[in-house]
Amino acid sequence: MLDPVLSRRALNRATLERQLLLNRSELTPLDAVDHLVGMQAQVPHNPYTALWSRLAGFQPESVSELLERRELVRIGVMRGTIHLVTADDCLLLRPLMQPVLEAQLRRHGEHAPSLEGVDVEPVVEFARTTLEEKPRSGTELRALLAERFPHLNAAALTHACQIRLGFVQVPPRGLWGTSAQARSTTPESWLGRAFVPNPSIDAVVLRYFAAFGPASVADVTTWCRLTGLREVVERLRPCLVTFRDERGRELFDLPDAPRPDPGTPAPVRFLPEYDNLLLSHDDRSRFVRPEGGEALARVWTIGYGSVLADGVVSAVWRIQPDGLVVSHVPGMPKRLLASLAAEGRRLARFLGARDVRLVALNP
After folding, report:
1. E strands, the chain, where?
2. How far apart are CA 201 and CA 244, in angstroms?
3. Residue 211: CA atoms inside 13 Å, Cβ hemisphere, count?
4. pLDDT (tens digit, 9 = 90+) per residue, 71-105?
5. What is the pTM of this model?
6. Domain spans of the chain?
7. CA-CA distance, 210 to 206, in Å (whole number)?
8. Within 10 Å of residue 210's Cβ, how many Cβ atoms?
9. CA 47 – CA 33 distance, rounded (Å)
10. CA 16 to chain centre
11. 357 three-class SS
């Protein structure tokens, strides 16, 4: 029996629903972060905008409180990038992602040569003790390592310790309305618990499908950069359903996951500069606007967030001195421009910007 085919629009609506972007959810911030398997947070305030677009009545102070209560933490996990995750996921995901981080260390053009032949275990244990005395900045840790191991490259040692220990960035870093230097300690010290022994990649892959599916094996790999996931998905196949996309690629999903009608309206949603919605699939065509792509590519650079209109990226945005500036593809219908302006005004108020200004991009 042939697998059903899901159109790009059907895939778009399914993923938007699971990403809480079709309708703002009543979930708590903690439950939303758990459902989304963490949120990209290399720019400290990005998760606040991401949650504002996803949750009804979102209050940013609630996330700050969760960080201070150590129920949410900031740590490098998927793709080796800083994510906002629950405390439980910190202790589950970090050991699972260790192979990705070790591979990054081996490939590091600057630090890998300095670490060749070095026994880093004494260095790591010294760093653990030092960081568990009190959280320290990267500069402070480098200085201590340089003093203790004067014949080795302190910057390379610091990077190796970060990979091996999994630094948690502690508050005030990442709190709403603040700007603070990153200071780190070990997850075990910060949370008072050990990493999960023998964490299950199977359970995490199922959670990926719940938050990002339907998806291919290549999509899951792009999300986390772990290898060998074909074997994992094949092991899970009996509890999954399968589809094909319009190009014939096999997609996997949970049987009871929502797959809305492709005609379901998708409201305008503003996403931060880095949002996992757009970083977690090998094939991102479900979110790409066929027309106007070249115009967007010319301005979609570091520092710009993206805007979904009718479910696809149709504009980019950035806070400028005169307010929130939204640069959109040319030829957008008036009703979409009105929705863009209205949602932009709401975001401007949330971020404390003066107003919103729409700018049509040149074709």
Report:
1. 39-40, 72-76, 82-86, 136-137, 168-169, 183-185, 241-244, 250-253, 269-271, 305-309, 312-320, 323-328, 356-360
2. 24
3. 24
4. 999 999 999 999 999 999 999 999 999 999 999 98
5. 0.95
6. 8-191, 288-360
7. 6
8. 17
9. 9
10. 15
11. strand
